Amino acid sequence: xTQRRRIGLAITGAxxxxxxxxxxxxxxxQDLELHLVVSGAARVVLREELGLQLPxxxxxxxxxxxxxxxxxxxxxxxxxxxxxxxxxxxxxHAPEALVICPCSGGSLAAIAQGVxxxxxxxxxxxxxxxxxxxxLVPRETPLSxxxxxxxxxxxxxxxxxxxxSPGFYHRPQGIDDLVDxxxxxxxxxxxxxxxxxxxxxx
Length: 202
Fold this sequence. Notes:
Order of helices and strands: EHEHHEEHHEHEH
Strand content: 15-25%
Distance between the termini: 38 Å
Largest sheet: 6 strands, parallel
Radius of gyration: 16 Å
């Protein structure tokens, strides 16, 4: 029997909640095990940008987001930001990859400095120390020298820095096309087959 792939997804308080929700939808469409943590600031952004009021308890959050995406295939486990017993916090049970989407400047800075004040920062630290795939999706502009230095430091450690910067060569017809452009790149980094988003060439 083939074991399900185990992927982590962390949502922080940067603008761009729509990227996170679309990525969550497409990950749950896969036959994989998804481990999710949503920061307190991300809950505010989800409410302000998408009108989503997440329930307070992790189990309720998982059920709520599954209902929002309409996907039933994948398995989802949600954790509180202070849940130090989560598999995301341990190198012995860490997922194969972690995506932080969107990734705030504060989270970026904490990860670059090895700070672990919450589960998201600890999960990223685990990926680094275990040599596993870590994908950060910053959505900030303009970028300060501090942002750039933190990104360079992490990139040199093998972290994939994937800014939420959609292209336009595919002639997008709306916001959904722009969102899918970025999410498709994340799925590529996770080696997940995808039917969304264009590829260059004819």
